[in-house]
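Holo prediction — zinc ion.
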Amino acid sequence: MTTDDRSLVITGIGELVTNDPAHGGPLGVLHDAAVVVADRHVAWVGPASQAPSADDRLDADGRCVLPGFVDSHSHAVFAGDRSAEFTARMAGTPYTGGGIATTVAATRAASDGELRRRARCLVEEMLGQGTTTVEIKSGYGQDVATEVRTLRIARELTEETTFLGAHTVPAEYAHDRRAYLDLVTGPMLAACAPHARWVDVFCEPAAPTAFDADEAREVLQAGRRAGLLVRVHGNQLGHGPGVRLAVEHGAASVDHCTYLSDDDVAALAASGTVATLLPAVEFSTRSPYPDARRLLDAGVTVALATDCNPGTCGSSSMPLVVALAVRELRMTPEQALWSATAGGAAALRRADVGSLRVGARADLVVLDAPTFVHLAYRPGVPLVHTVLREGRPTGGLRRPAGQPSRPR
Ligand SMILES: N=CN[C@@H](CCC(=O)O)C(=O)O
Ligand SMILES: [Zn+2]
């Protein structure tokens, strides 16, 4: 199939989601469509009957094709396992963020090789489920050496890397938070900034080891001075200052947004900050879901992401997130798919991913389904047939040759 110097035409697309409003509606859906890929980018989109020829051809055989998912929030570099914490939570123990210390200890003790192997596995797992762009945070090192190690490994896997030294205050600084803030905003930031695009902070006064408004402001200001762009973990466990702080700092995104005041919603609606919702976290922590409809009705841009991490979301699956967004957040299938693709791109300030318009990166998913609605209609079913990243086929979860597709 396509290499850098060979073009590819994908024909037989029963339903094509472009996310290009020029084709109508936010999803820009075309039927009986074709896409031409050249030089790793989308070169042509239109009716199959008018498709230009290309060096190679892929017949989608009536399947649905959509932009690759953009998972704008993950913590994919870590060691250890917290399934026991999950079991306790299912028996009624609430999530407080305290378990992060368990992952910090395991991550510090792990070799680069182990961290790299585990992170690669997770990113491969994501790719097989249609995620072609992923953001990865540090935050399980919480010392200079381990934060740098985790960011270097993240950088091998994605350009969207985030410095989250201010995830929680580690145990050795529990009685001197000031000293940890000085470390995070001083030597740790200086060592990490070359490996990161973003700075993030867990601003959550309800969590004893996370950061309050003044502390979080200090972290974001230092990150900006170091040339990093801002994103924030906020309003996950209770009402608080996270959203206001994110808007005040021109953050690309504030993530979680479970507990919002009317002022928070109004501030988001008047800002360029995306609200990123992470419903697989509420699913995995048995917590109340965020009110997506309230945000959408107010005109806030909403993204959906996994938050894949060992504590609050063991899932790497954007199809699961889309299904939860429809079932539990009451988003329409159209809204959920947009938020999981174009919304994620907005949350990462990326114009080149999240859509299949001419000039976009040729990141696309062929679903073994006639319509994207099946992502929510058939939850838990491996519907991803083929994934192309930058025009190249990936291993994905392709059905072995000769095995019949399920009826569409
Ligand atoms: N809220 C903070 N951080 C992660 C959870 C990290 C953990 O519990 O290990 C989150 O986004 O949910
Ligand atoms: Zn997170």
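READOUT: The radius of gyration is 21 Å.
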